[in-house]
Amino acid sequence: MKILVINAGSTTLKYQLIDSETEGVLAKGLCERIGMDMGCVKYNTASGEKKELNIALPDHGVAFQAVIDILLDPADGAVKSLDEIDAVGHRVVHGGEFFNASVKVDDDVIAKIEQCSDLAPLHNPANLLGIKACQKLMPNVPQCVTFDTAFHQTMPANAFLYGIPFEYYDKYKVRRYGFHGTSHSFVSKEAAKLLNKPVEDTKIIVCHLGGGSSITAVQGGKSVDTSMGLTPLEGVVMATRSGNIDPAIIQYIANKEGKSIDEILNILNKQSGLLGISGKSGDARDIDAGIKEGDKRCQYAFDVFVHSVVKLVGSYVASMNGVDLIAFTAGIGENDAHVRSEVMKNFGYLGVKIDEELNKTIRGKYAEISTADSKVKVVVLPTNEELAIARETAALL
Hints:
six-stranded mixed β-sheet; alpha/beta; 15 helices; eight-stranded mixed β-sheet
């Protein structure tokens, strides 16, 4: 089965064509700057050659048509006809409490995704644009959606409820939802294979560390707690997001600066985190470079980030009453040996031992970086959200 995986953002559209039997990637690419003066499409041909097109992409419908044209290109295309594509799998950020698993697209599903748009105003509308563009151009091809929030719907009430009046949960469903669920699900399932015990007996912590970062406790194959909340703003310090703060800070700064709540939330989402502390960049690579140059604020940013990760990992060890495996994934988790080393230094009390020389060599590939006598396995395990969506789509069909 050939499955086209679509991940539509507000100004981007990523795609991969995956053979579900071999799990091989037949084609992939990225449409950028959708809705701007001039768009860009970067893609790999069927032969693996990288190409780039600068074309007008006024909306997601035009972007998806560009993807179809590339896939059908007589010289470079991966298919000769759209009939070769058996299904389309979409990533949707927020499914609220409506969805705890992937589903086939129908009118009711679309309506519920729209209802969740106020919980993810930057993402769900864009995801819907991708779905509707596919429906228009491929009306007879079954479509499925996988939700970032679905994996976390197994959290118990003591993990997802906030300490606020219960009426706000009753009326508006204000609660912890969690995100990066597709990544956490994929990585935790792969990690469970490394443990010689039944899945229901496993305790795994997944550290998805990137521009957006989240940590999840996975017990018995199910998410039982996660760091992001009602929105992706909660949790660890991130590239430009503040992570956990005292809520009164919002009122305090608003009063001091004469800013609205919306303006403060924009600061917390886009001007905080590594960028806000360092004053230099939200990119971990730039922070590392600044540390080497002796930049104290870059060192502060790094230390605060690591400390925020350590606190959450430690809390999940406590809430699960132990841990068998800790997995690092995503851009920072897979590539930044310094972060992995500094985080794991705090877990010697668990019997964690890291092979520091091996750890230094690992970038973007699987490796077990703990020593043979470590009481807890520590691994680097690259995430693959597109493959996870393809697997979910194939299972549905």
